[in-house]
Amino acid sequence: ELRLEEENLKARLREALSEWSVSALCYTLLNKAMTIYERERQPFVLKHAGRYLDKITRSRYVRVIKKADDNRLVVETPEGLQKSVSALSRGTAEQLYLSMRLAFIKEYANRVGTLPLIVDDILVNFDPQRAKTTIRLLNEVSKENQIIMFTCHPYTVELCKKEITDFKGPVNIDT
After folding, report:
1. Are 62 and 78 in contact (CB under 8 A)?
2. Most buried among 21, 58, 115, 159, by the most CB within 10 A?
3. Residue 103 neighbours by CB distance under 10 Å
4. HEC secondary structure over the chain
């Protein structure tokens, strides 16, 4: 009677182990599929936002990813470390926002046509190096889109004069 019970328990254990193996394999395959999707199958906007963020941050963050499991955005370093938006500094989060905005504009232009880009003191929370790389990026974007920039900071005007090839000069508005 005990031997029969032992054999019955062994059979149930083998069955449970088989089910667990199938579940573990499915979990591993789904994780691989999600990783491939997150790295290679991201929508146009996220790919371009990653390229823009890469330029702004001088390759500190090289990719913007929408996580497949919970739809949140993360940024990725060249080493593969992922950070959620809430873990970024205010300046870097604003750089991500600008990168997303530029990517949406690019995607819209591909479908409908170009639009002017209006920005207001976007460099306020950027360090000097990232401000410079952002102005250089805007210079590239200006080849396809007219850019109108509002600022009250003389440093931003000087940076534009230095980094933008066909800078038209500031227009002072008296209030």
Report:
1. yes
2. 159
3. 22
4. CHHHHHHHHHHHHHHHHHHHHHHHHHHHHHHHHHHHHHHHCCCHHHHHHHHHHHHHCCCCCCEEEECCCCCCEEEECCCCCEEEHHHCCHHHHHHHHHHHHHHHHHHHHHHCCCCCEEEECCCCCCCHHHHHHHHHHHHHHCCCCCEEEECCCHHHHHHHHHHCCCCCCCCCCCC
Which tens digits make up the pLDDT trace of 70-114? 878 999 999 999 999 999 999 999 999 999 999 989 988 888 888
Question: Tokens standing for 67?
Answer: 């996580």
* Each residue's pLDDT tens digit, 134-161: 999 999 999 998 889 999 999 999 999 9
CA-to-CA separations, 47 to 14, 75, 79, 103, in angstroms, rounded: 46, 11, 18, 8
Q: Using one digit for the tens of pLDDT, what is the confidence trace for 2-56?
A: 899 999 999 999 999 988 998 888 888 877 766 666 566 568 889 999 999 999 9
Is residue 145 within 8 Å of 114, Cβ to Cβ?
A: yes
- The pTM of the whole model exceeds 0.70: yes
Rounded to the nearest 10°, the torsion over CA 119, 121, 127, 133 is 30
Q: Token pair of 109, please?
A: 């232009």
